[in-house]
Specification:
Layout: H1 3-19, E1 24-29, E2 33-39, E3 48-55, E4 58-64, E5 77-83, E6 86-91, E7 100-108, E8 111-123, H2 131-136, E9 138-142, H3 159-198
Parallel strand pairs: 1-8, 2-9
Antiparallel strand pairs: 2-6, 3-4, 3-7, 5-6, 7-8
Length: about 200
């Protein structure tokens, strides 16, 4: 093996190891929103999932997949377990004091596991945008938000925007199928009528 290729391989592996040690940096303006997606193992499907803020004293839970009617939830953070190993967290109406480190945590039978960790930087509101326009922006991060590295991408279309062309495509294909069936029936009827006249 070429020594330069071997060195490049080692550097790549070392870089992958370092990527998991540091939180992903996400920047969002005051009043904005973020959407974080985390993957978990399928054997943890029934485990408690938590979105927490990492403080010096440990993980401070903000919202959880477990329903606790006694404890009021964090009114600006929402956790949705989409099943199939996907967890989605949304934080809205961001404030300056929201800056800090957050993460998706699973409390499974083998112990607590941090799935994804972010460092949230809050930027001052953009001077050119109205407050309503800024609140409509959602900054996505996580293992499924961007295939190339999980970075924030406000330009990426949301899932519901992607499904509309798919629905119209299905409607078009069903329409073509109906037309083909009608044409086949008409041709079969003509052929049967022709065979009945000749025979």
């Amino acid at each position: 093996m070429d020594p330069n290729l071997f060195l490049l391989l080692l550097l790549g592996l070392a870089g992958q190891g370092l990527a998991g040690m540091y939180p992903e940096v996400l920047q969002a303006p005051v009043g904005g929103s973020i959407l974080v997606q985390c993957l978990y193992r399928l054997q943890d499907i029934r485990a408690r999932k938590v979105w927490c803020r990492f403080m010096p004293e440990g993980c401070q839970p903000l919202v959880s997949s477990a329903v606790d009617r006694r404890a009021p939830g964090h009114s600006r953070a929402f956790l949705t377990d989409l099943g199939s190993g996907l967890l989605q967290v949304e934080m809205i109406a961001l404030r300056e004091d929201d800056a800090g480190e957050y993460g998706c945590v699973v409390e499974g039978p083998t112990g607590t596991q941090t799935l994804h960790r972010i460092s949230l930087d809050i930027l001052p509101a953009a001077p050119g945008l109205k407050e309503e326009e800024e609140e409509d922006r959602i900054y996505e991060v996580g293992s499924l938000a961007n295939d190339t590295g999980g970075g924030a991408s406000p330009l990426e279309p949301r899932q519901d925007e992607k499904s509309i062309p798919l629905i119209w495509g299905i409607v078009l294909l069903l329409g073509l199928l109906v037309v083909a069936v009608v044409l086949f029936a008409v041709m079969a009827k003509r052929k049967a009528h022709r065979l009945g006249v000749c025979g």
